[in-house]
């Protein structure tokens, strides 16, 4: 079962999940039109992850990895050779099903996003930390350097209105999302891998219903456009830094 649940944010909730005060600067639409196709020197991009990277509820062209590719072209030519993400994926599923396929795809750039189902099914924090470490080490082991890997956080799905009857204790789930995102950021930073926190977009679902798909649970293409926008700024910076200082890399967390 794909995981995205909801609760209108109440006063007194954790500050990390507070929505912005106004709907200013919300994404205004889908990213497009499609830029020129990948050229012979395009960088091979592989996305791994869970329901969010898979894009449940939207057309393939509206998934955030596809929109990211369109935003970056022609300045940066990524060829999305595979989106290995699938529905209902836990970290253990990603390790078993997606990692074995990664190296054979010869990626130049990889994005990782996994954690929602681990929250929902209450994977122990120690197990999640061990699995995340294994995933990131495997991506690095496939030959992709840390400045060619970007990790995305798990959005606070307890804010979405469609899942009010699907989760018995949204407050504990919200706390677990925050804990797992901290684990993710710590593991990435220890390996010099950049994290993009998509909360500035995903937390706005309480302000803009159009950020949700028809089921009121999953992100819409419009929300994914906002994620892709955040991603694009980070990816451009990483590639510019690599050109300027090819021997220097370090961890960072993008807001």
Describe this structure in words.
This protein is of the alpha/beta class. 38% of the residues lie in helices and 11% in strands. The protein has eight helices and six strands. The chain has helices spanning 51-54, 64-72, 91-102, 116-120, 125-141, 170-190, 199-202, 221-244, and strands spanning 43-49, 78-83, 109-113, 149-152, 194-196, 253-254. A six-stranded parallel beta sheet has the order 2-1-3-4-5-6, with helices on both faces. α2 (64-72) packs across α8, α3 packs parallel to α5 (125-141) and α5 runs parallel beside α6 (170-190). The protein is globular and about 50 Å long. It starts with 42 loop residues before the first strand and ends with a strand.
What general outline do the C-alpha atoms trace? globular
Strand count, sense and barrel status of the largest sheet are: 6 strands, parallel
Order of strands in the sheet with the most strands? 2-1-3-4-5-6
Quote the beta fraction: 5-15%
> Any idea what the radius of gyration is?
17 Å
CA(first)-CA(last) distance = 29 Å
Helix content: 25-40%
Return the string of H and E elements: EHHEHEHHEHEHHE
Count of individual helical segments? 8
Based on the model shown, name its key terms.
globular; single chain; 38% helix; alpha/beta; 6-stranded parallel sheet; 255 residues; disordered N terminus
């Amino acid at each position: 079962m794909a995981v995205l649940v909801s609760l209108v944010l109440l006063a007194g909730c954790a500050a990390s999940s507070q929505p912005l005060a106004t709907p200013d600067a919300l994404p205004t639409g889908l990213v497009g039109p499609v830029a020129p196709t990948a050229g012979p020197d395009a960088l091979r991009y592989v996305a791994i992850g869970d329901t969010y990277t898979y894009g449940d509820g939207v057309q393939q062209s509206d998934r955030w990895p596809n929109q990211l590719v369109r935003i970056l072209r022609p300045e940066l030519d990524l060829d999305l050779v595979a989106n290995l993400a699938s529905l209902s994926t836990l970290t253990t599923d990603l390790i078993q099903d997606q990692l074995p396929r990664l190296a054979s795809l010869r990626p130049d750039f990889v994005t990782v996003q996994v954690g929602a189902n681990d929250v929902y099914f209450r994977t122990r924090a120690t197990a999640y930390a061990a699995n995340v470490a294994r995933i990131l080490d495997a991506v690095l082991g496939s030959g992709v350097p840390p400045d060619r890997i970007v990790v995305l956080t798990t959005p606070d799905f307890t804010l979405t209105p469609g899942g009010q009857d699907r989760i018995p204790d949204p407050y504990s789930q919200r706390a677990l999302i925050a804990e797992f995102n901290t684990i993710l950021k710590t593991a990435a930073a220890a390996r010099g891998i950049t994290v993009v926190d998509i909360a500035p977009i995903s937390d706005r679902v309480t302000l803009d219903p159009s950020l949700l798909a028809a089921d009121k649970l999953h992100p819409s293409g419009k929300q994914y456009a906002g994620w892709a926008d955040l991603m694009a700024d980070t990816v451009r910076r990483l590639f510019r830094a690599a050109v300027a200082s090819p021997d220097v890399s370090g961890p960072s967390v993008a807001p």
